[in-house]
Amino acid sequence: MTTKSYQPFLIFLHIQKTGGITLQRILRRKMGASLPQRAIRLFSKTPQLTTLEAAVKSKQMGDRYFAGHVCFGAHRFLPHPYTYIALLREPVSRIVSLYTYSHANPNAYYHKQAIGKTLEEFALDTPLMELDNGQVRFLAGDSHDLFINRTPIGECTTELLQVAQDNIEKHFLLVGLTEYFDHSLLLLQQMLGWNHCFYLYQNVSKRDSKPVVSADLKAEIAKQNWLDVQLYQLAKKSFLEKLEKYNLDQAENIEKFRYYNKVFNTCFSPPYSIYEAIKSSLSS
What is the pLDDT of residues 142-199, one digit of tens each? Predict the structure, then answer.
């Protein structure tokens, strides 16, 4: 299936620990400024934008897209016409990953909330809205907040889930799934008319760094995030239907993509590692 060139301003609603950094890199490569333009911006005296609202409001149609940790509703400050994309992740694994990352990384947004706590204490007893049906909150949005829906913890209802579903149906080009990350990229490739969407393997957690999670704790986390569980199930059903619609539900499609993505990594991982080392030395 072929597509025409895509026109609306693209908003990537990046929910933490769903694979969003990799997708942001792809968007920057496909839709962002060229390398010379980035270099000019880096060395220009343009003041850095220090707030989320300022970063959103700075965008113009020529920028083509915005990607960041924002909830639905950011479009009110962005160019029109617009459309959204997002990635969802199985709720329990997302919260486990958020804890693991936050606990291990001093620069993580929720490091102070995770350090010194067990997974159970973090997931069930920490008063963070991200841990209380956070994915529904992001897709439902908030008319007074750009980051996350501010419904008091423990008070999210099926009405908020319905708002999230309505937003998806009316305003989202695609809601992909972390567990089907490569399939999600292939769908975007089709929908946006990209020639390819290869990526480098980065930000992959080591298996032995992940905590062992009992079945009882998984059940408790799922119970606390029951709306996220329902949202994920609905999104997965819709996603699989889209795979079939775009003829991407056959195993050979994904196998072919993964083969060529390995070739891409073999060619480009070494020079990218050198680039990262130089960038790190310059910023230290």
Answer: 999 999 999 999 999 999 999 999 999 999 999 999 999 999 999 999 999 999 999 9
Segment (H or E) for 261: helix 251-283
Q: Is residue 279 part of a domain?
A: no
Report in angstroms the alpha-carbon separations of 172 from 63, 75, 219, 220, 243.
19, 12, 30, 31, 16
Rounded Cα distance between 5 and 172, Å, is 17
- The DSSP-derived string for 4-66 is PPP-SEEEEE--TTSSHHHHHHHHHHHHS--HHHHHHHHHS-PPPP-SHHHHHHT--GGG-EE
Nearest CA-CA partner of 217 in 131, 119, 130, 128: 119
Percent of the chain whose pLDDT exceeds 90: 80
In this structure, which amino acid lies at residue 267? C
Domain that holds residue 151: 9-249
Contacts of 13 (CB under 8 A, 6+ apart): 70, 71, 72, 74, 84, 85, 86, 138, 139
Take residue 170 and report the two structure tokens written for it: 């009316």
Residue 4 resides in a domain: no
pTM: 0.90
Report yes or no: 99 and 211 within 8 Å, Cβ to Cβ: yes
Question: Does residue 273 lie within any of the structural domains?
Answer: no
User: Measured between alpha carbons, how far is 119 from 124 in angstroms, rounded to an integer?
Assistant: 8
Our count of domains for the chain comes to 1
CATH number of the domain at 161, please.
3.40.50.300
Confirm whether 282 is domain-assigned: no
